[in-house]
TrEMBL record, chain A:
<dbReference type="InterPro" id="IPR006311">
    <property type="entry name" value="TAT_signal"/>
</dbReference>
<protein>
    <submittedName>
        <fullName>Uncharacterized protein</fullName>
    </submittedName>
</protein>
From TrEMBL, chain B:
<dbReference type="Pfam" id="PF01565">
    <property type="entry name" value="FAD_binding_4"/>
</dbReference>
<dbReference type="Pfam" id="PF02913">
    <property type="entry name" value="FAD-oxidase_C"/>
</dbReference>
<dbReference type="GO" id="GO:0004458">
    <property type="term" value="F:D-lactate dehydrogenase (cytochrome) activity"/>
</dbReference>
<dbReference type="InterPro" id="IPR016164">
    <property type="entry name" value="FAD-linked_Oxase-like_C"/>
</dbReference>
<dbReference type="InterPro" id="IPR006094">
    <property type="entry name" value="Oxid_FAD_bind_N"/>
</dbReference>
<dbReference type="InterPro" id="IPR036318">
    <property type="entry name" value="FAD-bd_PCMH-like_sf"/>
</dbReference>
<protein>
    <submittedName>
        <fullName>4-cresol dehydrogenase (Hydroxylating)</fullName>
        <ecNumber>1.17.9.1</ecNumber>
    </submittedName>
</protein>
<keyword id="KW-0274">FAD</keyword>
<dbReference type="InterPro" id="IPR016167">
    <property type="entry name" value="FAD-bd_PCMH_sub1"/>
</dbReference>
Length: 303, 514
């Protein structure tokens, strides 16, 4: 065991966290590396019991490496395993100290329901809550991401869409922003590579980015009940793809985009109340089979 | 211009709401009045097949005293601001912590969490709304009081006040929680504080021991209602029995529900089996041990054949009857003989005890619930399908075999029409059975979300047409269920509402009452 890790576990022990967790035989939360400081938010990854944890870590570390200085080490990780089922109070204690801290978490749906409530109980601030699902044969759009974020500042969708479009034939990303933004000028954001952009201003301002299908169809695929009148937004050629390291699959890409946002590196702000990215084209090559039938929930929250 | 609130109460302008919020801040302090999106986000997530935005609150207030609540209702009356009260706020599958209508202010009583009294001899507790079962469990343990709680499956994180006020249930002999409630303190919409039952009398020391007081019994009107804010709540606890014997009885066919219910009813009514039993379908138990995607992919409800395979692979019955005996060893031995004799008669039942079940995870969590222990294992249901969609369909059935079979078959048939699985159980049951079905669906899939909505709507329509009423429902369907109980009851509910809360500031829309 390296010294940093030993000291941190010792620190947690003396701080009472592990004692508070106190369930016999339970795998304790392990903090692997020290918390970074400096230009990005002090952040930690919190891994619940999902089968994709290891893959998720890869994407998260890639984002961390891309956006932090080398002296900040690796992204610190806490592993929850099944602690949430057995000892939610202990988990709350773990989340509370040290503070302030930004947590980037993934869990299965069962633990997500509990974690959302723990965040409320400890007066946490929930910045983004995402549901991510790949359901092999079950739907018209098999890969789906649904986010509710406090404001567009915590939007993950655009970054993720620019990555997914390079190797996923069918996906949808829907983001709902709770804070009503100040509507700014039409040219606030750049066109997104591969997508055509549309805006509807009928009730709230909604943005729709489509690849391989018209907005009327995309509208149905994301479950919009009203047929909005979508106005094209950008003309001219779009900018190139994102500057990201090579990532293997959609889970890594999701974690890369999520951690990038959590660290406060958000490329473009938007001024809509919801936006969606819908891609349907069958020409590209994929690496999806491994993650068929996968679902998990992601969180960014501050304590 | 952008609003500084994520939602506004119906009919309240931003300027008026600004004033109300600053008045709330004067009473509670800045940090106990939440208005920004990041703080309110955890209050918004629901599992219902409607946009979360439909249930977004405008603010949340974290009150800690009765006096604060009295002042809050005064402000609400003045500015016509509606509030939605939660105690621990874990009403998963019924609307969670979110209000019934967009823009209502959540009055979150989580910080009002004092255990006021636990009487070891008379076996009762008096608590504030924010007290969790875990807190009470730890308190009883620490003080070695020798008392047991009765908890719903979200045990540790939920609490007795919110659970009982919504007429929730647990699994010990005290499982029908409202039966064991005794005395409430309620802040009324006009700011007056009522203590129900014996609590109305100055210097009474019988508030938590005698329910009825004098004159019309009032406690019931503060459950599943919006007539007051409960600030103290008394209820009875079960003395820890000297011995406890949990067991499971497995059956292999869906039709066996008839035999199960016919066998169990006399045992329940006579008290041989004293606890709120569970008759769980294999698909209710399977998520603890397996994932749906291990057995089926593609659209449609899970086929019976796959369900049979799951039960075989994971040592489950198609029906699993969880029950327990409590008392001295001698009492248990006698009752065990009666139980086994009754169930052995047809030769269909497989009776299994703690020793035989070993560390089986489904049995273990049921055994914990039947003695009021803390476990959140039942949340595994949410991993069955994924996508975060869930609604409890909760019709009441007679405890009669033919009726439970009919309800099960009807529910399964309607669910299947929409491609959804039957994850159901029958619980509590002396003369009735709460038929509890978790309608699980993928909320990220628009087609399935729409199907789930229509399915739930049809379940309510078809069941009510056959005279089957729902005992509790999520906030998206409260009006619909209220409608099924007929116009006279609705009118009485409204008359009471108008009398007790003329400005309609307390949770308008709860149980369809405005
Ligand atoms: C996997 C799973 C299993 C479940 N199993 C069970 C079960 O076995 N039994 C069961 O009953 N439920 C069950 N539930 C549903 C629910 O989670 C519980 O009933 C839970 O106890 C309700 O949340 P709560 O106790 O925090 O109450 P709250 O959410 O605080 O309150 C419930 C409702 O009561 C009203 N209310 C609350 N406080 C007050 C107040 N002070 N004054 C006036 N009105 C008030 C409000 O309308 C509120 O919405 C289950 C849920 C899940 C996810």
């Amino acid at each position: 065991m390296d010294k940093t890790r030993r000291n941190l576990i010792k620190g947690m022990l003396t701080g009472g966290t592990l004692l508070a967790l106190g369930v016999p035989g339970m795998a304790p939360a392990i903090i692997v590396n020290p918390v970074a400081s400096g230009s990005v938010h002090p952040s930690r990854l919190l891994l619940g019991n999902t089968p994709i944890s290891e893959v998720f870590i890869k994407g998260a570390n890639a984002a961390w490496a891309a956006h932090t200085h080398s002296q900040q080490g690796l992204l610190p990780i806490a592993k929850l395993e099944d602690i949430l089922f057995d000892n939610p109070a202990g988990t709350a204690d773990l989340l509370r100290q040290p503070r302030p801290l930004r947590w980037i978490a993934i869990t299965d749906e069962a633990h997500a329901a509990i974690l959302t409530e723990l965040i409320r109980n400890i007066d946490g601030r929930l910045l983004a809550l995402g549901f991510h699902i790949y359901s092999a044969n079950d739907a018209l759009i098999p890969l789906r991401h649904r986010w509710t974020t406090a404001s567009p500042a915590y939007s993950v969708g655009e970054k993720l869409a620019t990555m997914l479009i390079q190797n996923q034939p069918q996906f949808s990303i829907v983001e709902n922003f709770l804070e009503k933004p100040v509507v700014r000028n039409e040219d606030e954001a750049l066109p997104i590579a591969g997508f055509s952009a549309y805006r509807s201003t009928e009730q709230d301002v909604r943005d729709l980015h489509c690849a391989g299908l018209p907005p009327s169809e995309a509208n149905v695929l994301i479950g919009e009940k009203t047929a909005h009148s979508w106005q094209p937004r950008f003309s001219g050629t779009s900018s190139g793809g994102p500057d990201v390291p090579k990532l293997e699959n959609w889970v890594e890409m999701t974690s890369f985009a999520l951690v990038t946002t959590a660290l406060g590196i958000n490329s473009h702000q938007t001024s809509c109340t919801s936006r969606a990215f819908v891609c349907r084209s069958n020409q590209r090559n994929l690496h999806t089979e491994v993650f068929a039938g996968t679902h998990f929930v992601s969180f960014i929250f501050d304590v | 211009m952008a609003s500084k609130y994520i939602a506004l109460p119906k009919g309240v302008s931003e300027t008026v709401f600004d004033t109300a919020i600053s008045r709330f801040r004067e009473i509670l302090g800045d940090t106990a009045v939440l208005t920004n999106a990041e703080q309110l986000a955890p209050y918004i997530k629901t599992m219902m097949p409607v946009p979360d935005a439909d249930h977004a609150p405008s603010a949340a207030l974290l009150a800690t005293t009765v006096e604060q609540i009295q002042k809050i209702v005064a402000i609400c009356n003045q500015y016509k601001v509606p509030i939605w009260t939660i105690s621990t706020g874990k009403n998963f599958g019924y609307g969670s912590a979110a209000p019934v209508e967009r823009g209502q202010v959540v009055l979150d009583l989580k910080r009002m969490n004092r255990i006021l009294e636990v009487d070891k001899d008379l076996a009762y507790a008096l608590v504030e709304p924010g007290v969790t079962y875990q807190q009470l469990y730890d308190y009883i343990d620490e003080h070695q009081l020798g008392l047991w709680l009765s908890v719903p499956a979200p045990s540790a994180i939920a609490g007795p006040v919110g659970n009982t006020l919504d007429r929730g249930v647990g699994y010990t002999p005290y499982g029908e929680h409202f039966l064991f409630a005794c005395g409430m303190e309620v802040v009324l919409a006009n700011g007056e504080v009522l203590r129900t039952g014996m609590g109305s009398m100055p210097n009474s020391n019988t508030w938590q021991v005698f329910k009825w007081g004098y004159g019309p019994y009032l406690d019931g009107i503060f459950t599943q209602s919006n007539y007051g804010i409960v600030t103290k709540f008394g209820f009875w606890l079960m003395p820890a029995p000297p011995a406890y014997k949990p067991f499971v009885i497995q059956y292999e066919h869906e039709e066996d529900i008839v035999e199960i219910v016919e066998t169990i009813r006399p045992l329940r009514i006579s008290g041989v089996i004293p606890n709120a039993i569970v008759i769980a379908h294999a698909l209710y138990e399977a998520p603890v041990k397996a994932r749906r995607s291990d057995y089926v992919s593609g659209p449609g409800a899970i086929p019976d054949e796959a369900v049979r395979k799951i039960s075989k692979d994971h040592k489950l019955g198609i029906w699993n009857v969880y029950a327990a005996l409590y008392g001295t060893q001698e009492q248990i031995d006698v009752n065990w003989q009666i139980v086994t004799q009754a169930f052995k008669q047809s030769g269909k039942a497989k009776i299994l005890t703690e020793q035989e079940m070993g560390d089986d995870p489904a049995f273990n969590y049921r055994a914990k619930l039947m003695r009021g222990d803390m476990t959140l294992t039942e949340f595994s249901l949410y991993n069955w399908r994924g996508g975060g969609g869930s609604m409890w369909f909760a019709p009441v059935s007679q405890a009669r075999g033919s009726e439970t079979l009919k309800q099960m078959a009807l529910t399964k048939q309607i669910l299947a029409k929409y491609g959804l699985d039957y994850s159901g159980e029958f619980i509590v049951g002396m003369r009735d059975m709460h038929h509890i079905v978790d309608v699980l669906y993928d909320k990220t899939d628009p087609a399935q979300t729409q199907a789930a909505y229509q399915c739930f709507d049809e379940l309510l329509t078809v069941f009510s047409a056959q005279g089957y009423g729902t005992y509790r429902v999520n906030t998206a369907f409260m009006d619909k269920v209220a409608e099924t109980y007929g116009p006279v009851q609705r009118k009485i509910h409204k008359t009471l509402k108008d009398a007790l809360d003329p400005n309609g500031i307390l949770a308008p829309g709860k149980s369809g009452i405005r």
